[in-house]
Design brief:
It contains four helices and eleven strands, in the order ααββββββαββαβββ. With about 270 residues, it is of the alpha/beta class. Strands 5, 7, 8, 10 and 11 form a five-stranded mixed beta sheet that branches.
């Protein structure tokens, strides 16, 4: 029984010793953590004072792209006016308004035109490279009284470079006239050779000739007739002369036929 009491007392002292060690260790760690936290807070506050941070707040509009300034429209463009009652309306260019769709523009672009269109009144308009209108009273009235409303008239666009006039039709290179024996100014007779006479060759011979612009025969070709007669007929046709043929006041070549009649004598 005494042995059990001695063993129980030794265990109680061991447990007490371990508990004291655990409490001391825990307390030591707690103190270290507290000291470390306090030191960290003081160090962080010191760094904040040195940095002196500046905070800037931006709105979403500051990051949005700024749109390009739109060109001034014709309505917003200031118009130059003249107080002279005899002044003439001036325009930078001869441009019709959109009220005249019958005259579409020659070119189409994406850039708006800042010039003013031509007015619709009947008064004169000068193209001077600038836009200038009458004064507040409008165009001068013919009677010298108040403002006169003139109905819009028909505006005719005058082209400074009119299209070239169509060229007159060119005459054909060669004019065909058929039989031209009677049109010759000089028509020599062909020779009647002895061979043709002995062969008793006679009859009509047709020669196709080509006459140049001056009336000279430049080629001759037999179309029909006795072979004994065609050679001399071609020689005579080459010596023939004709008056120049004019077509649209221009001399042209002529194609025709010369006829020769060979008659065998007794």
């Amino acid at each position: 029984m005494f042995n059990n009491l001695i063993e129980s007392a030794s265990h109680a002292r061991e447990f007490k010793r371990r508990g004291s060690f655990l409490l001391f260790t825990t307390g030591t760690y707690v103190v270290l953590f507290v000291v470390t936290g306090v030191i960290s807070i003081y160090a962080y506050d010191a760094r904040l004072e040195e940095q002196a941070l500046e905070i800037t707040i931006f709105s979403p509009q500051d990051f949005a792209p700024q749109p390009d300034p739109a060109p001034a429209s014709q309505a917003d463009r200031p118009r130059e006016t003249s107080s002279n009652p005899n002044a003439v309306t001036e325009r930078a260019e001869a441009m019709l308004s959109v009220n005249h769709p019958e005259h579409p523009p020659e070119t189409v672009g994406t850039t708006p035109n800042t010039n003013l269109p031509l007015p619709d009144h009947h008064g004169p308009v000068a193209i001077t490279g600038r836009d200038r209108d009458y004064g507040p009273g409008g165009p001068p009235s013919p009677g010298g009284g108040g403002r006169v409303m003139i109905p819009p008239g028909q505006i005719v666009i005058v082209d400074d470079n009119p299209p070239p006039s169509p060229e007159p039709p060119k005459p054909p290179k060669v004019v065909s006239k058929g039989v031209i024996t009677g049109l010759a100014t000089y028509l020599p007779k062909p020779a009647y050779t002895e061979i043709a006479k002995r062969a008793r060759a006679q009859g009509s011979v047709s020669i196709q000739v080509l006459i140049d612009e001056s009336g000279r025969v430049i080629s001759a070709k037999a179309l029909s007739g006795n072979p004994f007669l065609t050679v001399e007929a071609q020689k005579a046709a080459m010596q023939a002369r004709f008056a120049p043929t004019l077509l649209s006041n221009q001399p042209v070549k002529v194609s025709g036929i010369i006829t020769y009649n060979f008659v065998l004598g007794n």
